[in-house]
Automatic annotation (TrEMBL):
Keywords: Transferase. This is Putative succinyl-CoA:3-ketoacid coenzyme A transferase subunit A. Transmembrane segments: none annotated. SUPFAM superfamilies: NagB/RpiA/CoA transferase-like (SSF100950). It comes from Martelella mediterranea DSM 17316. The keyword Protein transport does not apply.
Amino acid sequence: MRKVFASATEALAGQLRDDMVIMSGGFGLCGIPEALIEAVELSGARNLTVISNNAGVDGIGLGRLLETRQISKMISSYVGENKLFAEQYLAGDLELEFNPQGTLAERIRAGGAGIAAFYTKTGVGTVIAEGKEVRSFNGEDYVMETGLVADISLVHAFKGDTEGNLVYRKTARNFNPDMATAARMTFAEVEHLVQPGEIDPDHIHTPGIFVSRIVHVPNPVKHIEKRTTREARREEA
């Protein structure tokens, strides 16, 4: 089975349609599958439900799909870094299913593990629990949350081989490994593409069995969300 494709557009060709549920890895701008997101934009697919911690920033990452209004619903934990995200939500143009961040991560992990639902104390007694089942265990209340699955997942990896085995780098790992397991098809963009056997099996984060298609994206732009600097200190003579 050929997994490596020449471009993100080619990898996603024939797999995108309106009304899809898409998971997109990353945290802020760290570890986002930017090339794959651009291919979704170029496809013109609309009315998308996107599961992602947030939506990048204005003009970068998922922010581009908000600009084209291809996203109708976000399942996220954070809104504040993207002005357009907040504007569309407050105007009623974008549906938002808000999750505590840990709950979102566990919902994705559960979906990938075949777990239909789980109970957590997070959100009990708040608007997060409204309309959800609440049960008592050992005298403590827990709210039921359902696992999340998607039609496709888009992930970014530091290294991958042609069989689809993936390695993520440091904090760019974030939501990517869990999302890679929780979709019908997973598409991975990798910075370094190697041959089978070149990755130590003990270093693999996502086994190739979860990955359907791969695109090699060398030297991607590493955006900095908030650049913080200080004035250079003048050394005393």
